[in-house]
């Protein structure tokens, strides 16, 4: 038999095989066994960076080779694996409380208490513009990109009518190259979209509340309240309140696409963007938690954890906007950040930069654009992300 006739089918088969093996994997919580959405699995080996992102069911496909694969999520300890199993388990950084159903009937005392907190929060949380020490870390992982920014400095805390401002004393960027800029976007979101800041009459009216009877606080006056949006199932969370002092001590909140779009985007601007460029928000998820501390008589956010995922689509591009994003660092869909604030005796410097409010889709003034550019060009040391 002709040997070439035997080899030909084999060669055709080899040509049709994929260049790299693919393996499906599920990332799950090691305690609850619940899937972990938006976990990043990434590697840099032989000068190449690859990553994958889990979906809402914790699933993803690894289509690249690796020797050591890092699995990362803000709420979990990092894990490094040398081989893939069908399921990868992550250890929570803190106890993951199970979801609790908020009943349609709620205790009568909750709403009056929350309304009083809203009335008095200006004096308790935004009393004066103190100077605090901050430590900030943000991380962004894309399909072919990695970025981490660590910064320390001084934060001039806002009053109810003033803006935040920062004076950086140390900044380090870890990335695949030295073209990246400093990114304060998540710090602004954590500060301006702080739970107490957004707590108002509309929030109280649009949510249902219930008490968690199993919560054990540090005093008999501490109560954990559960809340869920009346209109959207994708807005839910918890808050710990001191009923004697009328204070919010801690809060956590998970918000999905429908609620984020309603809260943070103007329907008019969104409509114009959709008409002009085909812009659509396909997915928008945030996971946020904060604890407050008394800092010289004023309640301030002491520790904040924030995870942000956004997926958009548009049919056209604007050269001016592309140049502006190049000047300000652009952005990635999958981001995680932490912020820690503490009192300080350090004397504030004169070179504070204003932190503009957070935004997602808006028309910017020239002054705001210059503020964005200045924040993106703060001095920082560069470290190349190695294997």
């Amino acid at each position: 038999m002709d040997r070439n006739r035997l080899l030909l089918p084999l060669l055709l088969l080899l040509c049709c095989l994929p260049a790299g093996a693919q393996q499906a994997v599920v990332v799950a919580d090691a305690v609850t066994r619940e899937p972990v959405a938006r976990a990043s699995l990434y590697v840099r080996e032989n000068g190449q960076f690859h990553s994958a992102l889990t979906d809402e069911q914790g699933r993803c496909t690894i289509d690249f080779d690796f020797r050591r694969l890092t699995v990362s999520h803000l709420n979990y300890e990092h894990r490094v694996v040398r081989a893939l199993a069908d399921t990868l388990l992550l250890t929570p950084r803190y106890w993951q409380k199970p979801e609790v159903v908020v009943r349609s009937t709620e205790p009568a005392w909750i709403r009056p208490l929350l309304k009083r907190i809203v009335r008095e929060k200006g004096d308790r949380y935004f009393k004066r513009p103190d100077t605090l020490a901050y430590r900030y870390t943000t991380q962004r992982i894309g399909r072919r990109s990695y970025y981490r920014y660590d910064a320390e400095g001084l934060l001039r805390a806002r009053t109810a009518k003033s803006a935040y401002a920062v004076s950086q004393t140390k900044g380090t960027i870890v990335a695949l190259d030295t073209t990246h800029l400093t990114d304060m976007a998540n710090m602004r979101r954590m500060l301006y979209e702080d739970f107490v800041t957004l707590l108002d009459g509309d929030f109280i009216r649009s949510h249902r509340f219930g008490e968690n009877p199993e919560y054990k606080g540090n005093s008999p006056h501490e109560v954990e309240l559960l809340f869920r949006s009346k209109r959207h199932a994708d807005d839910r969370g918890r808050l710990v309140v001191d009923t004697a002092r009328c204070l919010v001590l801690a809060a956590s909140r998970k918000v999905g696409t429908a609620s984020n779009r309603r809260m943070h985007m103007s329907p008019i601007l969104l409509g114009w963007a959709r008409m002009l460029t085909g812009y659509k928000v396909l997915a928008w998820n945030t996971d946020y938690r904060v604890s407050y501390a008394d800092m010289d008589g004023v309640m301030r956010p002491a520790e904040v954890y924030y995870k942000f995922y956004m997926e958009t689509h548009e049919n056209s591009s604007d050269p001016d906007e592309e140049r502006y994003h190049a000047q300000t660092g652009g952005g990635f869909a999958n981001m995680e950040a932490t912020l820690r604030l503490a009192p300080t005796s350090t004397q504030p410097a004169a070179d504070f930069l204003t932190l503009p409010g957070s935004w997602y889709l808006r028309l910017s003034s020239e002054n705001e654009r210059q503020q964005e550019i200045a924040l993106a060009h703060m001095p920082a040391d560069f470290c190349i992300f190695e294997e």
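The radius of gyration is 24 Å. Residues 6-19, 327-331 have pLDDT under 50 and may be disordered.
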